Amino acid sequence: MPRNESDALASVEGAEPIAIPSPRGIAGGLLSPLTQPWTVARETAGLARDAVRILRGTDTIAPSPKDKRFADPAWSTNPAYRRLAQTYLATAGMLSRLVDDYEARGADWHRVEQARFVTNALISAASPTNTLIGNPAALKRAFDTGGRSVVRGLGHIVEDLRHNGGMPAQVDRRAFTVGKDLGITPGAVVHRGEAAEVIQYRPTTASVRQRPLVIVPPPIGRFYFLDLRPGRSFVEYAVNQGFQVFMISWRNPTKDQAAWGLDTYAGAIIDAIDVAREVTDSPDVTTLGFCAGGQLMTTALSHLAATGDDRVHAAGYAVTLLDFSSRAPLGAFSAPQLINLARRNSHRRGVITARQMGAAFTWMRPDDLIFNYLVNQWLMGEDPPAFDILSWNADGTNLPAQLHEQFLEIFGENSLVRPGAMRVLGTPVHLSRITVPTFVTGGITDHLTPWDGCYRTTQLLSGPSTFVLSSAGHIQSLVNPPGNPRASYYTGGEPGPDPHAWRASAERHTGSWWEPWAEWMLERSGEEVPAREALGSAVHRPLAPAPGSYVLERRSS
Fold first, then answer.
1. Burial 326-336 (b: 16+ CB within 10 A, else e)
2. Same domain for 304 and 428?
3. Is 167 within the bounds of a domain?
4. What are phi and psi of 421, to 5 degrees?
């Protein structure tokens, strides 16, 4: 289980609306590398030779020192366990090389990523450490506890079968309460629409910047990953910089809202912009979109540009992909048959659930997101950990069928970057029409939205752009408060066509991308004005304290 904050952040998969693998797709991904008879024959012969060496007692096949699965001394000192680990590692190496050779022979990269996804999942599932008899640490725990760890593990299995879809729980959800432990920055709901609430946060500085900030979180998951706890809250940080902060809190849809699509969400963003303008007496706003929220924000910006509307002065993007043509592990799910299947499933049910979306992401990193917890809870009998970010990650939301279908079109057909391929609020989407200044971020180790794909946004939009590269992964780069000496980011000159040329000349800084973002924002947020004590206005009166009611809804699909 996660041992510290960094491990917990690394255990969060984030969310992008993708197609979920089918049994047929899984079989295809597994069989593709096996269509190379000479390579298969060579690797099989090599595996046979390895088997002979293992039986004789070789020391050349050994787990990586970083592989925590084989950290117990029994894997190196006990002859039986040592040979078991070596056999597993030799077989895993053979399967990985088959995929590498499949790629080297010029296979389509989407097919390669599909094969790699399935092979990695199979390799992780086959590890001997996932069984009680094959895990010496778990056997020792059972002996030391007189079997109590086994009993507790069986209890966890039953609980997970009943309440977690048969997957090991990642977190103890009882440890945190939204509004009490999480999402506690003071504020009030000043607008409630059908699809979203708008939260205004209380200023903490004597003066504030006149132009407000509207934050657009992703519609998958709940917004409070941006407002975890004091010291770990992006909202708290932004308020302390003197910005007037407004947050969109999306409603958790059911099948009754199956028809909600881009028009619904883009319209809600524009409504939030107007609320912030009216409450602050500002003619325009700045915006900041996170993950898929950045895609929604882009469709609203495109509509505003098409109608000659200047309500948005500047916009930020945090780990958002607009262009899906770049190679990424997500390509494993872009096969047309997978996308069509996912589209049919969500239409039939009216929504795609958080559990369905999360399944694909957990299997992208099965050692960290599945079997790590299986071993600790099911075999070792430990209780699930209590981490705020893991609690948020388990607090998923549904996605309505119409929006899911449109996201699949963006993902599978790259529709956002094709001028006029999509229409939102009655106008065709043309990214080049968006001319507002932009601040764009990516994460070096982000496996969901690769940083060079995020960088592409600087080339797709027409306004002046600033790019900052975080040293972390997807969620790690978002929950990234200043003060962590291990955190860093890169800044450079004006982004050109080549992201890697930009990175080669970029300068590394210790700290968080939140800091250069705040500097960029201060230049674009207007003059300082006295902070108002009261929240809301005569038109938009406070309806409820933050974090509002929509974030607390636990609605069935």
1. bebbbbbbbbe
2. yes
3. no
4. -70, -25
CA distance 132 to 45: 31
Q: Which residue has the tokens 């920055």?
A: 185
E-strand ranges in 353-476 read 399-400, 423-424, 427-428, 438-443, 465-470
Which pTM value belongs to this model?
Answer: 0.88
Give the pLDDT of residue 136: 97
CATH classification of the domain holding 268: 3.40.50.1820
Cα–Cα distance, 197 to 553 (Å, whole number): 12
Same-domain pairing of 221 and 304: yes
Q: Are residues 317 and 460 in the same domain?
A: yes
**Residue at a domain's end among 145, 162, 195:** 145
Distance of CA 304 to the CA centre of its chain: 28
Look at residue 555 in the predicted model and tell me its pLDDT: 58
Tell me the residue ranges of DSSP E strands in 157-264. Answer: 187-192, 196-201, 207-209, 213-216, 245-250
The set of residues, in sequence order, having a beta carbon less than 8 Å from that of 328 and lying 6+ positions away, is 113, 447, 448, 449, 450, 453
Residue from 368, 377, 329, 363 nearest 122 by CA: 363
Q: What is the CA radius of gyration of the chain?
A: 25
pLDDT of the residue at 180: 94
Write out the catalytic residue numbers: 291
Low-confidence ranges of the chain (pLDDT < 70): 1-35, 327-347, 360, 555-557
Contacts of 313 (CB under 8 A, 6+ apart): 211, 284, 285, 286, 436, 437, 524
Axis-axis angle for helices 401-413, 262-280 (nearest 10): 100
56 & 204 share domain? no
Q: What are 290's strand-pairing partners?
A: 318
What is the pLDDT, as a whole number, of residue 557?
Answer: 46
Euclidean distance between CA atoms 9 and 476, whole angstroms: 6
Residue 23 belongs to domain spanning: 5-145
CB 464 within 8 A of CB 377: no
Residue with tokens 């039939």, as numbered in its chain? 348
Residue 338 lies in a domain: no
Do residue 454 and residue 543 come from a single domain? Answer: yes
- 14 close to 475: Cβ distance less than 8 angstroms: yes
> Which residues, other chains included, contact 556 with Cβ-Cβ below 8 Å and sequence gap of 6+?
254
| pLDDT tens column, 163-201 | 888 889 988 888 899 999 999 999 999 999 999 999 999
Structural domain contains residue 294:
yes
Residues 120, 201, single domain; the answer is no
Q: Are 24 and 343 in contact, with CB atoms under 8 Å apart?
A: no
- The reported pLDDT for the residue numbered 26 is 47
Q: What is the pLDDT of residue 332?
A: 52
Q: Cα separation of 114 and 107, whole Å?
A: 11
Are 272 and 196 a contacting pair, CB within 8 Å?
A: yes
